[in-house]
Every structure is written in structure tokens, then in C-alpha cells.
Input
Amino acid sequence: MASLSNVGLHHMPYTGLHSLANETLSQVAAYLFDDQPSISNLMLVNKRLSGVCEYVRYTSLAVQGNRGRRMLASLISGSPTSDRYCLTVKRAWFKYWQDAETYLVSALMCEALARMINLISLRIDGHSVDIPHVLSRMDRVGLIRTDRIPLSILGKSTTSGGPYSALSLPNMRNLMISGRLELTAIASHRPLTELTLETVLDYEDLSDILESAENTLLGRSLAVLSLKVIRSIDLGLVLPLVGNAFPNLRCCALEQTAIKFSVSIFICRRAYG
Output
């Protein structure tokens, strides 16, 4: 992909907005980041501005409402431009959506994620999602990993018609989930460095999370973990268990009602053996 300095260069003199360097134009686009209609209009001016603005608009996506749904639909259209935009995405935040939109947005989200092979950071607000439907769609496009690579996933990847990978989201390192905990299935067997769960965990939830991570790629790779737990959980007993499940953890932030603190696994092991 061409750098900003090489996007749409011409040797003829420019005046006004066009006289600015691409780096300066990217700052203008960044100023308009929260005003999506304006940045879209700026991209329509000419090829040079479109090339500059796409780095700003599509590097970080916040998907919500009708506008977000239309954006997802355009990203999975299969055109060369949409494929290029998908490769630009580094951070994506799928915000809360209405019940009436659940099936459509879930399908669009999964299809788009499968194309965002350069995605590093993902956040999903999944309070109102239909979990069986979402997990089915994720599995269909190969977003949910197992401890092996079944031939069925290779088949899905080669017959889908899009730039899928048998090891989907290969660059994802940061994951934040709020709402339904079943969405953490997307974290399984991935080399994440940071995981944040916004849902308050009870004993059973916490046990499932730790058990699913122990002796896995996720457990070995995670460096930063943020969790919320119910007040009745004994943190003195929890910390050593967290250390066993995530042996290379550097920071563990636990929020328990009004109590929030951060400790390192080294300190946990030293204090609790």
C-alpha cells in the first residue's frame, strides 16, 4: 500500500486546499473523524483527497446505527476499493445495535471481520445480540479458532470469494468484550496481548474463562487482563488461579464493586506461592 506521501502526487502547482501536503491534509481529515458525512464528502472531491482520507476514516472504525450498517455493507461488497479499505482497518468498535437489526448487523459484522486481516484491536458491545446466530456466523467464516486447523475451515476460506484467511484476524492482539460472555469464543487460541471483559463475572463465569485459557496459546501470550467480578469473590484466592491460567501476565486489573486495583503476576506468586 502506498504511503501518504505518494498518494496522488502531481507536478502541477496547487492553490488553496490542494496546495497542502498530504500529511497536513491527513490532519484535516483527522479533525473531521467524528463527522463522517463531512469526511465522506471530502473523499469525493478527487482521487488525491480520497486516498489521504481513507487512512483516517478506515484505520479506526466505530460501527453503530444505520450509517454503520451501510458502512459494513460497502466494506463487504467485494470491489477492489472495499477490499483495500478492509486492509486499512487497524481498530474496530462494534457498538450497541437495536434488536430489530441484530441478525443483519451480526451477519455484516462477521463478514467484515473476516476481511480485516490487519485488524489489531477489536471491541464488541454485545448486550443485545442473538448468541447462537452470531457464533454460527463467526464459525461459518472461520473467526472461531480451535486447537487445530480442520479442513472444513480451509474449505470455507477458499470458497468464500473474499480475502479470507484460514487463520482469521492474524494480527489481532487487543480484545474488549461487553455484554454476552459467549462472544469471548473469538479469543480462543489467539496470541492476544490484552483482554478486557466488561461483563461482571460470577464464580462460574470466572472459572470458565480461566479453564478455557489454561495451557492454550491465549493463556501463554496474554500480558494484560482486565476483569470485573462480583463482590463475594475472594480475590486472594482468585489471583493465584489467574496466574496459573496466564503465566506471562504482567498486569491484572480487577474491578470489584467500588474496589479497583492493579497487581502483577510476579507479586501474586510471591504473596500466595
